[in-house]
Write a structure and sequence with these properties.
The protein is α+β, with helices and mostly antiparallel strands. It has a single domain, classed as 2-Layer Sandwich (Ribosomal Protein S5, domain 2), CATH 3.30.230.10. Helix content is 44%, strand content 17%. The protein is built from three helices and three strands. The protein has a three-stranded mixed sheet with strand order 1-3-2, covered by helices on one side. Helix 2 links the parallel strand 2 and strand 3. Helix 2 packs across helix 3. The radius of gyration is 15 Å and the shape is elongated.
Length: 103
């Protein structure tokens, strides 16, 4: 699994202050990985792994758009392994964000 990160423009006339402080997440599974039912199952598992992850509340993730891309190997992992992978990805994003803010 991969994650792409994009900073969100904080100046949006339609967004409330609360909306700009919460990270948004999208979950992408390519059509070539599985049929619709398999893609939907994997997308549900990815959303649940993100929902259960306490790191998603980290203040360093504020105002970010996170896009999680499923790798072909994601179809063969257990939900527990998917949660561990999600945890590692979020930790990596937090460390990278901290490193860029420190400079």
């Amino acid at each position: 699994m991969q994650v792409r990160v994009a900073p969100r423009n904080a100046i949006n006339e339609h967004a409330t202050n609360e909306e700009t402080n919460v990270p948004r997440a999208a979950f992408v599974v390519a059509k070539k990985l599985a049929k619709a039912s398999g893609r939907n199952r994997l997308r549900r598992q990815m959303r649940e792994a993100y929902r259960l992850n306490a790191r998603r509340h980290d203040p360093r993730l504020r105002a970010l758009d996170l896009i999680f891309l499923a790798a072909p190997t994601a179809l063969d992992v257990s939900p527990h392994e998917l949660r561990d992978a999600m945890n590692g990805l979020l930790e990596r994003v937090i460390r990278a964000r901290h490193a860029t803010q420190a400079h």
